[in-house]
Every structure is written in C-alpha cells, then in structure tokens.
Amino acid sequence: GATSGSGYQKDQTDKFVTHRVKYLRKSLLGINNLLDSAYTRLRPLETIFVVGVVLCCTTLCLYVTHKHLELHNIVKDLESRLGPMGAISNPNLPSSAPYSPHFKSHVESVLRDELDVLTVLRATVQTHDIKLEQMQSIIDSFYESTELPRSGASGSKQKRDADW
Fold it and tell me: How far apart are CA 74 and CA 78, in angstroms?
C-alpha cells in the first residue's frame, strides 16, 4: 500500500503542476496580448508627442534667434552712434565748437549710460549665443537618440556667419 499512496501523491502533484503551467501560459498570453494592444493604441500618441516636442524646440529656437538678432541690431545702432572708442560721432558739429561745461557733463553722462547699455547688451548677446549652442546640442542629442531623420539634404544645417 505504501507504493500506491506515493503514486497517488505523484499523480496529484503532476496534475497540479500541469494545471499551474497551463494557467501561467494563459496568464502570460493574456499579459502579452494586453501589452501588445496598449503599444498599438499608444504608438500614434508617441508619434504626436515627439512631433510636439520637436515643434516646441523649433519655436523656442526661432524665438531666441529673433531676440538675438534684435539685440544685434540694437548693438550695431549704439556702436554707430558712439563711434570708435566710445566717442560721440556727429559730423554736423565742428570739433572746435565751444560747449558749456553743463553740456559736456551731460554728453559724458549720456555716453557712460550708453556704454553701460552696450556692455549689458553684449553680455546678453553672448548669453544668447551660449543658449543657442546648448539648444543645438540638445537637438543634436535628440536626433542621435531617436531614429527620426533630420530635415534637409545633408542632415545637418550649418550656422551662417553674422555680419558684425
């Protein structure tokens, strides 16, 4: 009788294991089907998200570039008004014209103020240049980490030199 009892336990254990394996296979198949359907449903949203991120980055680049060019134009205007080494250039005034001390101090004050503004603007332009370089590296790393092709024939755009 001892062998028949252990045979019965072995049969029960085998049935239990077989039942558990079938149950796990069905569960895994259900989980795989659920993941496949979730991936299929979310794939278009992923594409929309990536396109949205690229559009936001492009808009930000355009905004920063626009502001950079505005500052560049302001700096050029100030430099043309100040002339070389910060001297006020006004061809309509003779160089030996007598000026009152009040006028001279006013001109010097305006000159100092404009030089301060020019210094701040140059620092701002340099900051914008750094931000543009950082954004370009972010965009480059984004394209390197995804399989999205870059627009343009060569795949990369060259920064054109500004006329300073």
Answer: 6
Cα separation, 146 vs 159, in Å, equals 23
d(CA 96, CA 162): 38
What are the tens digits of pLDDT across the range 34-77? Answer: 999 988 888 888 889 999 999 999 999 999 999 999 999 988 88
Instruction: Tell me the torsion sign for CA atoms 118, 120, 122, 124.
Output: negative
Instruction: Give the C-alpha separation, 134 to 123, whole Å.
Output: 17
If phi > 0 it is left, if psi is from -120 to 50 it is alpha, else beta; for residue 77 that is: alpha
Locate tokens 């080494």: which residue?
85
Q: Of the candidates 88, 89, 162, 76, which has an alpha carbon nearest to the alpha carbon of residue 121?
A: 76
